Amino acid sequence: MKQLFIALSLLFLIACQAEDKSSKQIKKTSNSAEEQRIDALLSKMSLEEKIGQTALRGSSSSSDGGISEEIIEDIRAGRIGAFLNVMDPEHMQELQRLSVEESPNGVPIVFARDVIHGFKTIFPIPLGLAASWDDEQAEICGRVSSIEATQAGIRWTFAPMVDICRDSRWGRISESPGEDPYLGELISAAYVRGFQGDSLNAPDAMAACVKHYAAYGAAVGGRDYNSAELHESQLRNMILPPFQAAFDAGVATVMTSFNDVNGVPASGNSFLLKDVLKGEIGFDGFIVSDWNSITEMIPHGFAADEKHAAELAANAGLDMEMTSESYENHLEELIKEGKFKEAELDDFVRNILRIKIRLGLFENPYTDWSTPPVYYEEEHMAAAKTAAIKSSVLLKNNKSLLPLQQSTKVALIGPLADKGHEQLGTWTFDGEKTKTQTVVDAFEAGEANFNFVEGLTHSRDMSEDQFKSAVRAAKRSDVAVIVAGEEAILSGEAHSRAKINLPGAQEALIEAIAETGTPIVLVIMAGRPITYFDYQDQLDAVLMTWHPGTMGGPAIYDMLYGIAEPEGRLPVTWPKTAGQLPLYYNHKNTGRPASAESFVPMNKIPVEAWQSSLGNTSHYLDYGFTPHYPFGYGLGYTTYKYSNLVIAEKQLDKDGTVKVSVDLTNTGSRAGHEIAQLYVQDITASTTRPVRELKTFQKVKLKSGETKTLSFEVPVSDLSFVGADLETHLEAGTFNLWIGNNAMSGQKGSFELVD
Ligand code: NOJ
After folding, report:
1. Ligand 1 mean position, distance from CA 210 (Å)
2. Going from the N-terminus, what domains does the chain have, and what CATH number goes with each?
3. pLDDT of residue 30
4. 290 is catalytic
């Protein structure tokens, strides 16, 4: 029965993809019946119970593995509102029973977990899914995650993470949608639709939690937990749009970030929480802190002690506290001292109850454990494989080395070729390596002509003991496929890196194989872009698969052998070296833009050269001014030509729509997928604008030789921006426009916006 239900849900989702997505949004506006119900409940609750609703606890166990006596007492008194990471079904059932049957007002508990890119069936990491430029894929990932996780009693996930990030050193870029706010918006809303489904109170829906609010991805130097210093206009133009998209899609909850924003920690930031989120946006779900992020305002140097931290967070409008217990310890006292108003606490509780009601927890507090959960359904595995193919980016393919022939003799090498755990990536508490299909598994299943030698046992391995056998295998083969990268633990929370190259002796392994003269295909599995500019000549083809998830192996096999084509495009600029970071396509032009004509590389500067301003433009002497690969870049197994860009009206007023078409021709010998990207530049404005901004794109499939005329429409209102004066501007003037296959190319045109 459960299986049928799952299959039907997925079919329904796929059928709905053609529909107007707005119809799937959950109503955000509170309705009066709901509010009356909340108020009636609230009026019966004691101060202790109200504070209890704000408590999200991290554990329920005693040392002997049972439920601790303290927790039992706390629940009976109504002192706990939610749990995270409680997974034992018996514990969950009993905790809920205690809450519903024995606490004063029977308010149910909501169980939460980080279900980020899959529960059991793991999809590519979120940065990978963003590389698909396919919001339906993100929606499917969210839906499958919910279908699986809700069977284990989880009704609240801490996702999507939508922190725009311009610095790949940051370990959590792996969880993010990348560097572009527009792509971030699409992906953010899609995850919310997927997790929350059509109705939050369906038993297979989870409340989503958009995080980390705000500017966590702008951590200085890419160092996790670090400060974000940015102008409010940047916050509004770059950081907030994906959050707004989640709100528009009806996201139920929001998580604050660990960092301080312009000197004020996010968890005590009343501008972000009260003014923007609850005020301007009118968010009616609830806000949860991150793990201990309220009490961490003490080391931040913002709160003097735990009580002060509680006072700051509560007055900033933070509804629920994760794991630390400052609210429980101090809110009552703060209310008595007049430092925090009970009426504000009532609002926190209203927000929390509202989501519990919408989740249907009052009517159906218990998980149905009568039939065993069904995971890794065939449809789920197929969806994960499709997602891995759509997410993979072909970075290099000299002389069309790929796809390989079935008869090609392959030396399959590398520490990640057969590592079920590693290919799942970060934040996969529940994915099992025993269910993961590796590249070696897929080569075996596909009866490829191959010989596997690991070369290194893990990505940080420094031992060259296996190099000889790897070299021998390469010498006897037509092609060496090296599966290298980062183990899962090298990205994600607290796992920033100063260098973002292949760790351990992987580069030495590549060099040893390159010396054999056998062509090399490098398959990268990693949580971020990996630099290889300095030895790129040793590589004939490079396929970036991110951490591809449970079905990574079969997806990679299909792509290597041309059964499928890698369809992804970079959602983040790929640097030549970490020294270029932060690096992003939508930068400003500067007064001295870099150019090939003015650039004088380090080795061309004469010894004892006279100080002059010749060549003084915005570049690095050693690595120039271009990335290794721009945002939006990615190859396929065919080639394309863009031609005949036509902008319908060259003069537009502010209510208008930019209408533009371009011809796209598949000039290669096989069918393929292309992502045609439309960028604009506001050439002169009252606040300087980026050299390019992505405004829309289309994914198209073309047969060999086929030409399609693609039509794009961009409402002029999408050209507005928040200026240095914090006003929204839509300014008359000339705009450049490009349509092409990455942020540094394309057919160019221009149009005029008139007052
Ligand atoms: C800390 C992380 O920053 C956050 O993303 C996560 O959801 C919580 N811990 C809960 O695990």
Report:
1. 11
2. 383-560 (3.40.50.1700), 593-626 (no CATH), 640-753 (2.60.40.10)
3. 65
4. yes
